[in-house]
Specification:
The protein has about 220 residues and is an alpha/beta fold. The protein is built from seven helices and eleven strands.
Length: about 220
């Protein structure tokens, strides 16, 4: 996959290294040569110095043949302009823009532009950690609407089936790891004490999950 990353700050640099290590053809754009220099000699991709929303810079980076474009600069305005150019003018199949302002992110999502908002994600993550300390969220999806919870099955669940934890549209048991081996459970799969449970949970259902697990009053 041919990828262009506009902005070589912490996020852009980290994304570039990850994609480069996976074997993708990565080009990084930044107007600051010192930022590009941080990529170092181990980076196998290209570095293009220039303004990331100027047509000449984008063409020089190979946007006409790009499969994906990520706008990760520190400016919401720059990211939006660059992402809209990539999406609307050059018709890059996959375009993502990082936006700090979650209100603007929602607006552009409605216009068909994929955005990520570290502000929304961070706020939701803090709320989760404070409100549901007994549940460890290892990943979130969207703007935190769904969390992936990984936890050890408590003694209270010994002998119960996966069906007892399922709440349609709110809680799903994605996988169970037992004796070092993962499985995709059925509704009738029996839970053993000490199993590692992987659950997808709607944010609004975290309290309900705590009750089902016996972490609050009303559990088993």
């Amino acid at each position: 996959m041919k990828v262009i990353i506009m902005g070589c700050g912490r996020v852009g640099e980290a994304a570039a290294r990850l994609l480069d290590n996976e074997g993708h053809e990565v080009t990084v754009i930044d107007c600051d040569g010192r930022a590009l220099a941080r990529l170092g000699p181990q980076f196998r991709g290209r570095a293009v110095q220039g303004v990331g929303f100027e047509r000449e810079t984008l063409v020089a980076a190979g946007i006409e043949h790009a499969d994906a474009f990520a706008a990760t600069s520190s400016s919401d305005d720059v990211n939006i302009v660059a992402a809209r150019l990539a999406h609307n003018v050059f018709h890059v199949p996959r375009v993502v823009a990082r936006l700090y302002d979650p209100r603007r992110a929602e607006i552009y999502q409605r216009l068909g532009l994929v955005t990520i908002s570290p502000t929304s994600w961070g706020a939701e993550r803090i709320r989760e950690l404070f409100s549901h300390a007994g549940l460890d969220s290892v990943a979130t999806f969207g703007n935190g609407e769904v969390s992936l919870i990984v936890m050890e099955a408590p003694m209270a669940l010994e002998g119960h089936t996966v069906r007892s934890l399922l709440v349609p549209g709110e809680i799903t048991v994605v996988a169970i790891t037992r004796d070092g081996k993962a499985m995709l459970p059925t509704m009738g799969t029996e839970i053993h004490y000490g199993d590692t449970l992987h659950l997808a949970v709607l944010a609004e259902a975290m309290g309900r999950l705590e009750s089902l697990l016996g972490l609050s009053e009303g559990g088993y």
